[in-house]
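Marked as duplicate of an earlier ticket. Keeping the data here for the record.
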Amino acid sequence: MKKFLGLLMIIISLALFGCAKKEVQKIKVLVPSGTPLVAIGGVLGNENYEVDVVSGADLLTAALVADEYDVVIAPVTAATKLYIAKGIKYRFASVINLSSNYLITLNGSKLDQTGEKRVLAYGMNNTPDIIMKAALANYDVSSFTIEYQQAVTDVVPFIVSNNGDYDFFLTAEPTLTQLSVKYGLSFDVIDLQKELQSSLSIIPQAGIFVNSGSEKQAEIKTFLNDVKKNIEYLNKNQDKYYDKVSSYNEFFTKLTKEVLEKSIARSNIKYYEASKIKGDLDKYYDLLNNLNDKLLNGKKPDDDFYY
């Protein structure tokens, strides 16, 4: 009887140890503030995910090189560039956000109208700028004069002042919705994704990149599935999403319920397994290389890049 009880205690101890070990197998996730954070907002409450939220591309680039995170959510172009240039360990698992960049006009200007047109954009030679230029290439390019600010938030004061200096402004969600909700502005919106749909089926903006050296691949796959389910939920329940995520991060409360709900429709938050849309991604990389061959050094990632 004593032997039986001793054996039973050992089994129970091993079971408890196994459970405890499983509980601490959290995966570390890095995500930029903005639309990518909106895309995964519903999983922030999961205790199995340790999520760090950052602002700015520099921290994302450093993380992709340093291998400290199990998952990094980053701009697709930036991560692809690092893979081609440095051979990083992170692999492209999924696209979670298509282009949410738009041109707006407050004076009714049309892209196809004659005469000189002035555009205020941001991020010179970065992806939003390249996508905008690709769209403008369908029109009389010589009629467009483009000036730049550093970031989309730097464009906002020029839009609000509306002194007539510019015909078009490059902006993005959720800033676009804030212009109407917070500032009460009325404007026409030009969807750059639709402008390029004849040549590109998708314009990938943000993606999930998985550390191929992580020992937590099972947990990572669960995370990917949870993000996919969350994206399905937010697109079907835009009016309920704020209530679900608002307590997880102050980004959502600062954004406000109204802006979050109204911006989702134009944020193009979608989930695509990257390995299943390699053909579409190759077309995107071809466009980047044609417009700026220094961005990816004129190359495309090989099959090993995909998770």
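See parent ticket for discussion. The chain has a mean pLDDT of 92.
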